[in-house]
Amino acid sequence: PAPGDLVLDVRAVRKQFGGLIAVNDISFSVRAGQIVGLIGPNGAGKSTTFNLITGVLGLTTGEVRFRGDVVSGLPSREIARRGVARTFQHVKMIPDMTVLENVALGAHLRGHRGALSAMLRLDRPEEQRLLREAAHQLQRVGMEGSLHELAGNLAMGPQRLLEIARALCSDPALLLLDEPAAGLRHKEKQALAGVLRQLRAEGMSILLVEHDMDLVMDVTDHIVVMEFGTHLMEGTPAEVQQSPAVRAAYLGT
Ligand code: ADP
Ligand code: MG
């Protein structure tokens, strides 16, 4: 996508679980080369919104458009194939494989049905291609010095960067990050912020669910605030920080 193009367009999306409206007619968009923060107190509906965008959950009403096409209603695998990648709050990796192997395997699994067939059917050139791709993406997140370390020996910060590298292997246009700074040390958060800024400079669009307000205020271009499933406000980091409604939602004042 060209800079400024509409990449993600969430339009009046609603998700009802029985009597509970977890996401109540939410609308917002993400443009190419933008980092948008999605914040709000626990239970606000952020994770549900992620699941609606990625097709993990079906929506009740509304629609999600990705690069101009309606993707709501498509299977999550198809939405991923079109260029929506995500990381999870809890890192999933194989601890006794190397960093490089973990990313290569993740890249391979994305296009296939199961881990077992993935392991059995890899031919040599395909394996080499995946390893080169994985090394390239690990370099983008600054982990080129750790390719052959066991993933199980990584500190939390590098684990999160590994996850991001794996997500990047599908060549996505949109990256959804679910609390990437949770449990990170200050230095690790700074490294993460640097990676996110670098990806943005390369044209990546990012939707960031994050509780660490310092990171959110530091790296985002635009912030959407949810509360009890509703769209409370949106604006620049400065506008959100100054909003009495946001202060009330967070601090109860
Ligand atoms: P957040 O990520 O902002 O903390 P969630 O999207 O996880 O919020 O949850 C929003 C609301 O929806 C909460 O009240 C939660 O209990 C409810 N909820 C989430 N998933 C389900 C589900 N599968 N079934 C029923 N209720 C759910
Ligand atoms: Mg959540």
TrEMBL record:
This is Branched-chain amino acid ABC transporter ATP-binding protein/permease. It comes from Rhodoferax sediminis. The lineage of its organism: Bacteria, Pseudomonadati, Pseudomonadota, Betaproteobacteria, Burkholderiales. Residues 8-253 form the ABC transporter domain. It is found in: Cell membrane. It comes from the Bacteria.
